[in-house]
Each structure stands twice: as C-alpha cells, then as structure tokens.
What we know:
- By secondary structure, chain A is of the alpha+beta class.
- Chain A has 6 domains: 2-40 and 155-184, Phenylalanyl-tRNA Synthetase, Chain B, domain 1, CATH 3.30.56; 44-152, CATH 2.40.50.140; 196-396, Phenylalanyl-trna Synthetase, Chain B, domain 3 (Phenylalanyl-tRNA Synthetase, Chain B, domain 3); 403-472, Phenylalanyl-tRNA Synthetase, Chain B, domain 1, CATH 3.30.56.10; 491-684, Bira Bifunctional Protein, Domain 2 (BirA Bifunctional Protein, domain 2), CATH 3.30.930.10; 701-785, Alpha-Beta Plaits (2-Layer Sandwich), CATH 3.30.70.380.
- Chain A is 26% helix and 29% strand.
- In chain A, helix 5 (232-240) packs across helix 6 (248-260), helix 6 (248-260) packs across helix 9 and helix 11 packs across helix 12.
- The longest helix of chain A has 19 residues, at 602-620.
- Chain A is elongated and about 130 Å long.
- Chain B has 2 domains: 3-88; 107-334, BirA Bifunctional Protein, domain 2.
- Chain B is 39% helix and 18% strand.
- At the A-B interface, helix 2, helix 7, helix 10, helix 12 and helix 13 of A face helix 5, strand 1, strand 4, strand 5 and helix 8 of B.
Amino acid sequence: MYISLNWIKDFVDLEGLDEKYLVDKFTMSCAEVDGYEIKGQNLSGVVVGKILSVDAHPNSKKLHLLKVDVGSEILDIVCGAPNVRVGLRVPVAKDGANVCGVKITPAVVGGYKSYGMCCSAHELGISDDNSGLMELDDNFPIGADIKSVLPIDDCILEVDNTALTNRPDLWGHYGIAREFAAITGRPLKKLIVDDIDRYDKLDNVDISIESKKCLRYCGMKIAGVTKTTSPYAMQIRLYYTGMRAINLLTDLTNYIMLEVGQPMHAFDGSKVSKIVVKELGSDTKFKTLDGQERTLARGTLVIDNGLNPVAVAGVMGGLDSEIEDSTGELLLESANFDATTIRRSAKALGMRTEASNRYEKKLDPELCDTAIARYLYLLKSIDSDVKVISKCTDVYVTKYPNIVIKVDKKFIDKYIGKSLPMDKIIGILESLHFGVLRIGDTLEVHVPSYRATKDITCKADIVEEITRIYGYDNFAPLSSNWTLAPVTQSVNVALDYDVKLALATRYNLHEVGTRIWEDQEKMREIGITSSGYLRVINSINGENNFIRNSMIPTLLSVAKQNEDMRDFGIFEIGHVVSSLDKDNLAVEEKHLGIALVSSKDYSEVILRAKDILNYLSEYVLCRTISLRAATPVSEYMHPVNYYEIMSGESVIGRIGLIHPNIMSHFEGKLNIAVVELNMTEIYNLEESEVKPDDMGRFPVTTLDFNLVLPAGRYYSEIEDVANNIASPLKFKYTLVDVYDNAGDDTKSYTIRFQVTSLDHTLNSSEIETFHKQVIEEFSKANINLKA
Amino acid sequence: MNLDEILLAFDRDLESITSDDELQNLRNNYLGKSGHLTTIMRVMRDLDPKERPIFGQKVNAAKQKIEQALGSMREKLEARKIERALKGTKSIDLSTPLREETGSLHPITIIEQKIIEIFKSMGFSIEDGNEVETEYNNFEAVNVPKDHPARDMQDTFFLDNGELLKTHTSASQNRIMRKYGAPCKVIFPGRCFRNEDVDASHDNTFFQVEGMMINENVSISNLIYFMKEMLSKVFGKDVDVRLRPGFFPFVEPGFELDCKCPYCDGKGCNVCKSTGWIELCPCGMIHPKVLEMGGIDTEKYQGFAFGLGLSRLVMMVYDIDDIRKLNSSDLKILKDFKIK
C-alpha cells in the first residue's frame, strides 16, 4: 500500500522529522516499509505560463509556434500538444528547468527556436495523462513556481501489504497517521466531518438487508452536483497512492477509502433509488464497472436496486449505474460486509479490488457513517451547490462486541522479560487510543472499535502494543533460568546424521536432495512408469505428479542427470508415502536410498552395496538385519540378485540391481546397484546388544565342516541351521572360507565351530555327539558335507 | 692347525664376511661342535697334566677373542644394514592427494547439523516432522482458520486425499506440543513446500528449522538471547540481532528477526542489499490459541517459537547465489561440500 506523507501530515504534525527517520520508526514499530520515493525531486524551474498567441508551424501540421507569458518574460515555444489555445494557462519549463530528470535548454524544433517546454501532467509526474498539456486554473498567478500552486512535493511510502493483514485499521491514511502520532508522541488531529445528524428529518433511503452477511449499510442521497473534476491536490494524491482520477464523485469515494479505510460506492441516483442487499438466488449475468460481463454464482452477495443487481457487494459496482460526468444526483453507499464472503466473491470472480482487499481484513463497521460524513464535508468544500436530499439512513444489523481485556503488570513483565514502569505502559496504550482503567497493578484495557474486529483479542495482543511502541531495540538479550535436567532426544535425527556421515566419509558417496514428488517427465526419461498413493493436484507442470513411495526412482533420475561422471554413488534420506491408512491419510516413512553407479562388472557393484549395508547395520545403525532372496515387485528392479532386507520376519528394505530396461536409457555401459532402507522401521528396532562373547575358562575345541551348496541355494540357509542347533554345549561358528568346486557349479563353505562348556572340560564323547548333531542338522536341511 | 694358526686363519676368514649367514657359518667353523677350537680341545687329553691348565687357558683366551671379534663384526654388519636401508628408501611425495573423489554431504545437512549441535548444547531436544500434513496441522492448529487471508501468504500444494505438503515447519508444532507438553525446549528442522514460481531466490521446496521454548517465564528477551546465540555460533562471531513487528497468525506478538549483516558488519553490501540487515527468521511469542490447541495451560505457560529460513542461511554461509542449486542434485556443485 502506498502512503503519502503529505496526507499523513493533514492529521499529525511531523515537523522536524525527516523521511528516513519516519520510515525506520514505522518499520521498527508497526509494519515493514519496502521503500519510499521522494516525489517532485526531479522537477524544478517549472512555472505557470499563459499562452498569448498560437501560430501554425509552416513545416508541420502537429507543431505550433507559441508566445507564452511566464511573468518575467515572454518566451517563444514550439509545442506539439493538441490542446494549445490562446489564454490557456499551462506549466512551462524554462531554460535550465529539470523535468523528469532531464535538463531543459533552448532547442531548435522543426527549424524554429524554442525557449522552453510546455508540460503535460505526466511530465510533471503527477498523472498518467500524456495526451496534451496540463490545463491549469485561470486564477493561478502567471510566473508562479508550479510547486507553489500544486502539491507536487511529497514522500510516498510503500508499506508491505502482508504486514497489514491483521490490521484493518491501517488500510487508510488516518489509521496510519494514528500510528505515526503514537510513534512520535505527537497528537492526532480530529478528522473533520460534516454534521450529518442535521439531515435526520429528511426522508429515509429505502434500504433492506436480506442477508446476514451485511453487517451495516449506510446510504445517503445527494443532488445538485455541478462540478465534475476533482481538485488537482486530490488528483495528485490519488495518483501518488496508486489510483486514477476519474470524476469528482468517484474520486471522492476512492479518496475516502484511502483516507478513512472505508470503501464507498456512488450509484447514479437516477438509476438506483432503492437498496436491497441479498444473496443471489441463481447464477446471474452482470456487467461490472470495468466493462466486462461476468457470471455471478448463486449465493453471491449483491446490492440490488429492486429490479436487478447493481453491484457485487464489497467488490465492484455495475457498469449500468456508473457515475458519469453528467450525473447530478447520487446515492452514496458506505457499508460493511462479512469478510470471508467478500474474500470468496473476489476470488470467485478473479478480481481482488482495493475494496475487497480491505473488506477481507474485517473492517470496523463503526466507520460507515464517519465515511459518509467525511465524504459530504469534502464534497461541499469542493462543490458548494450540492444538496442533501435524504437523511443518512443507517441499517446497523450486527455490531461487534466491545472488548475489554484485564491484564496484570506482572503478566506484562513476565512476557517481555523486563519490568516497565506502569505510567509508561498506560501512556503507550493511551497514545494508541485504548481506554485504560488502572486498578492497583491491574489494567482494564478498552479496545477501540477499529482494533476490535479481530486484531486485539487477548492479553498477548496488549503486550504487543506496548512492546512495539516501547521499541524492541530497548530489550536486552536474556538467557533463561531453566532448571538443568537431562533432555529427551529422539533417536531419528541423530541416527540420520551418523548414516550420512558414514556414507560420505567411508564410502565417498554424495548426498543429494530430490523432490518429494516424481516428476513424470524425468521418470519417462529413464523409462520408469511413475506410481504412488497420492498425487499433487495443483502441480507446477500440470502433470499428475505422484508423491514417491520409494527413494529409488528419484535417485535414478539424479544418476541419469550426472551419468557423465560414470563411477559414483549418491544417497538421500527422504520422506516417502508408503500407503494410506483406513482414514485415507498418508502413511509417511523416512527411507534411506543409495544408488551406486559403476562402469564395472555388476557383481562388483552389488557386492559393494552389500558391504555398505553391512557396515551401516553393524557399526552405524547397530541393528540386526538379514537378507532374503526375493522377486522384485518394482519393474525397474533386476529380477536376479534381488534381496529383501529383513528384521526378523518383516521386510525393512531391499537391495539389488537396476533392470536392463532402465539401464538402456543410460549412456554407455553402466550398472547401478541400489539399497533402500526404511529408516522409520530402523528407529523402532532395538539396538543390538553389545556383549562379550564369553567362551568360559575351559578348553575350546575347534571343529571344521566343509559344506556344499548347489547353485541357487543361499548361505543364509547354513546360518539358519547353525543358529538353531539345540545343544547343552556352548558354541559359536564362523565362515572361514568359500570356494567354487571344480567340475560343477556347487560351492563349498568351510564353517568353523568352536565348542566348549562353561562348567567343565569336554570329554571326547561329548565332542563326538556335538559333531554328529551338527552333521545331522545340516543334512536335515539338505546341506551335506563335502564328499 | 695349532692355536696360533687357528687364530690367524680366523682373522683371515673374518675379513671376508659380508652377511649374517656367513657370520653364523664362521662361528660354526670355529666354535661349533666340530669347529676348530672344539677340535683342538681334544688335543688336551694327550698333554702332560701339568701343561693342561695352561693350554686350557690359552684356548679359552682364543675363544674369547673370537667371540669378541664375532660380536663386533655383528655390530658392524648391523650398522651397514641400517645404512643400506636408509640409503635404499625412496622419497615419496605425501603432499599428493591419494584419491581424486571423496564423498560429500548436502550443504543443508551440514548447516542443519551445526544448528542442531548448537541447540543441543543449550539443552534443546531435536525432533522431526512429516512432509505430508493435514490441513488441520498446517493451518488450523497454528491459528490460521479456513478463509483466513494469511492462507494466501502461502501457496499450498494440495494432494488428492485432501492432505497437503506442509508449507512451514510450524505444521509440526501441535504434534510436538502434544508429545512433550510443557515445559519444553525443542527444535525441529524440516523441508517445506510452496506452490510458487521458481527463481533465483524462490524454490518450491525449501528448508526451515523451527524451534519452540515453552515454560512459565519464557519471554521476548529470552527469544532475542537464543536467536543471537544461535546466529553468532553459526557465523562464528558475535552477531547483532533486531526484532521488527511482523504478522504471523501463530505468534503474538510476532516479529521478523533481522541479523546485522555479518559480511559487512552492517555497513551495507551485496548480501544485505545495502541495508546492513538480513531478514532471517519470523518468530514471536506463541499465540495462546496455538498453545491451547496443543493442550498447554496458557494460564501457567507461555513460550516463543521461531522458523529459521535454513535454505537462506545456507546460501549466505556458502555464498550460493541461486536457491535452485540446493535442490539441483547436480553433483558438479554438490560434490564440493566435503565434510571437515
């Protein structure tokens, strides 16, 4: 929002305070000022001139030769504007003047010397109008500096709108002036308004409110308007604050909105004499002021003249009842509507207007009649002929409750971490026009209506008012006096970091960060058909991007992106949605994904993956896992050498190679091995116990078994048997050798058992029994000794 | 050979010795079971008993002499060996790096870990949050009801089951308040998503670190302290912070926390766009409604919360000019973030 400092100065004396100071103060105490612009600084040496003669230019149809009286002299000026005429007073830039940052010097135009330039309003920087010369009042003194007759010098602040979301009272200059008054400790002047009570004896405007979404509606009829254009000063302010001058009656509604913060609407009195506020019963076509025909949905809150809609409430008026230059009678609206309703209307119509922007902030309904009284005051001061022909008819349906908040000084001190004197606290609140009643150390704070629609509701809000005006710069950092005690730490974040560190430092992998959705285009690039449990319905590229249920596809996409590196590994611990629960809500898990890209043989890559997994489970995660050969469900996984990572009987991950179908999308001959581990499951697993493998103090006997497995069977079968041998003896085993047998595709595994007893020395028959038992158990599982 | 001849022969033999093995052979030849000295002792039997002790002494003296000579020869050989070892060692340039490639952590992880360590050292718990959230957790529970204009401040990615991708780490506040209750000191880093146009300073996926501290006396002054400490540790020097009013529905009062630009000490530079200050962190005292929804007794407890822009901080620390690089997965950029 743009704020004119000149306008602010109408209401508070800022004498002696420079722009930078004011901007900083406002930013630090109220809302962020994005920037400010000094208007008029690129304009000097422009005076009021009177055109004495207009002669045709011999060489040009467009150009004219003028003689212009600028007070001190009469200048020859060549001018191309269409509206030159004798007697017209115009702004004239004399030799040496500065216009739009350009220095004006005598120049030859079309063969004739020109000793100055007549200016348009656009060239003065006070309008978009560049169609011709600015036509000045006939009573402006010839030769007077233009800045002495037009308020061109100003400072315009741009306040961040999002910082004002919760402050309906700051959507007008008067509200901002109230802040400046509090910040600078200077008094706020009263808003001068017309005494509208004196028209109470006149007829009512016919207003009926048929929807609860209209909180208040004030209407007044005025006739006898003869003036059509707004005074220059008003036009300039409107322009500087982002609006466009249209005609007097419309400009005034905008001016009041920018000043008081209350949107208004002026209907052509000849077309609207009755007001019905209602929700549309059916979809209705309607032409808005901007000339566009729109369909208003059923339920849209509208202003109706008894026959058809004349305005979309709080958003925009209709073209048919628009004020025109010929309008002499108007019906003035100043109303308050439900914030959410207006927000929805504006959204549905795709037009956020200055009015709807304000209404959706929950404006104070108390402003409605003030705005009318101010409008009338300003209109009368511009056009003394106007005649009020109705009373200010006020239908006030819903009032916001008065808010009174009791707050202890102790609470305030505790909240801010510092003790403020009571009179300071009261002084600040009163400077913001809060009513304050002190009862001992308790304050009873009466919230003004313009802060009471949603902004101030609780004690914390009062603290904010006090602290921001007191100044946050006046707070010193203060540590806490928290009692020392051990802090609970969740296992997950710390474990994640340990995993990442191990992968990066021990295995030289690179951590990447991929999106949570699978970009369809990138998936197609590597031949993966994306799938998942959830879709982003408003995705950026318009495709149905699935939320990933595995880390692998996005990692493969990164592998593809970096394939020219040939041999490298990447990893990420990311979120996936692994299913939906019975309420259709996402079941979210964190997964570790690893992809090893290699130009070497596939067996080397998959073994490296297995090595990494081993290291993680034993030394980083410290959780017991095992591998189980399986058939992959995912099409992108290679069917051979695919294993599920198990914790007991539950699957907590997978390890394998990428399918040749996918690999064919990569340049050159590459293999990719991947590991995916469900970290959410890992966090919940018990850490494996660290216990010394105590074999006691009696002699330990070593027994080696040479076991043979044919191709297609797994070492894990040997482990399964060995782990389940029931013996009274204490034993452990290790794999000491593996080798391929010559002549067939079987493999031999040398398993070394160490056996003892914790309470005696084993005798030979005990050892013999154990030896037999081991062979028997293996043979039961169809695992035999090497012949 | 008589004794003198033996000694002469020994001296001669000794001269030609060059290795430990030869030395051992030499010893065997003279002192071994069938060595010259052992053999000559046998002669003693045939001598006059009177001469025997004299002969014995002579042989012993010869034996000692030989032992001594062997000993010093051994030392000589040893010294020669060491000298050869020294001379034979090639010099290796250890300043040459061993491997070209080393692994890397994502810059977000590195700075996040730094922040985690800082807050852990101040007694905070570290938590984690979901990325898919309910509308309730993301909005309602942090005091942004339906149709609140503040929802426009955050363009949201919606999912087809009615859930959404969290737009801020505050979405985890409610769950964490319910888990810990009051008092609590927690930070929770997380990845957030907004449906925004992507440019050098906006990405639809970005990182925040949220923090909350709730207790009976937690104050605005505490908030300033913890923010200042954290930023000072991150930048490795004393950093000034300032609070400005800022509106966020989940805090009251709400602030924007700026830190004095650590690169120019507030004088104005490219990083701070000549303002001397860098906006880093929306924060404030947790709104009583948010505490209530989190099951916390607002008569007794109050607290602060902050949502540090981690992506932004990382960009500052590593002088990264384009936020998109963080999510680029481009190893040409990422592989340089090695762990120190």
